[in-house]
Amino acid sequence: MVKAERVKATMEALGKIGSTERGMMRLAYSEEERQATDYFIAQCKAAGMSVRTDAAGNVIARRSGTCSNAPAIGIGSHLDTVIEGGKYDGSLGIIAALEVVRDLNDHGIRTQHPIDLFVFACEESSRFGFSQIGSKVLAGLITQKDIADLTDKAGNTIQTVFANRGLDFGRLGEAQLPKHALAAFMELHIEQGPILEGKNLPIGVVSGIAAPTRFNICVRGHAAHSGSTPMNLRQDALIGAAEITIELEKAARREMQHGTVATVGDIEIAPGAMNVVPGETHLKVDIRSISRTSKDRVVKCLYLFLDHLRDTRHLQIDCHLLSNETPVRMDPQMIDMFEKICQKQNIRFTHMPSGAGHDTMNMAALCPVGMIFVPSAGGISHHPDEHTDLAEIITGIDVLKAAVLERAVAEPTEKQV
């Protein structure tokens, strides 16, 4: 079993970086995220690992294997957070990966395959409205052109943000990993939902990851005086945005049997005065599902309803597709491996899909992937109240360590010879 006190101390140290009274604030490529990655780099070097930062800002730490030409076994997650987030989302996967290496060092265990620890850059969409930039670049799923026009809410372009972080956006493509660089990738993460806690289960073996389709919708009407403009003569952009929100909820509810969900998570209103009919609104829409066909039906409903609003409310509506990703199934052999490890260690588990997106889904383009969940108290995530008990964390790390040893192929120790 890994050292619980060391895990706890690492969690506490990392949890102080970016902590505020309103929650964690480690936005992608921010100074706070840099401080967190610097802490991780220092810990990896102390554990005898070599470390590099690629052109996308991903941090990759390597524990060498005995076979120099063997592909690596990848483990990891992310350190950036949502606005006012929690201390476990992403960070727990980083701590787990680091502790696996530390524990192997403690026991003098060498592996044939090298082990690569990944801290993926910009997993969260909170800053740019575009998620998992680091892992998508690594996997060759996006190019420099795909994200060149991104800006954050403060109006900073991604090129400027990269430059401020000491990264050259023009060299982004250099971060792509070659095929066969990895033999497998695994991630431990909090569930971000209530299933495991509700069933009193310590481990969820992930079967697949839902993928989002995201839009930025601009609704333009006509700003007017709220007191002197009759209701039947208004072109209220906010009413149009509200109807879009309600219609999306109806469409997603019709697809609930497929686990499909739809969310309008951000609305901006202009001019934003109490006595002015809103003339323009901007909505950010997230539609996701394990089922591609179910998600496509909701998207189709959205497009049809936007046409309806244009005709009935005489609004100008621009709908910009931000991303359209495909749900990913975990590798069957990886699922089977996690299942057998749990059975061998007498750990109760369940198979479950992930409604949230993760970097693992992009790494599937490079190698077989697997993922495990540990419980999230109250199903809470992306919130300061995020919490997972230390005992549950240790159980998850023990399962991850066993999986890494199986895939990386442990060399016999002197006691075994």
TrEMBL record:
Belongs to the peptidase M20 family. Coiled coil: none annotated. The keyword Methyltransferase does not apply. It comes from Sporolactobacillus mangiferae. Keywords: Hydrolase. It holds the Pfam family Peptidase_M20. This is Zn-dependent hydrolase. The keyword Hydrolase applies.
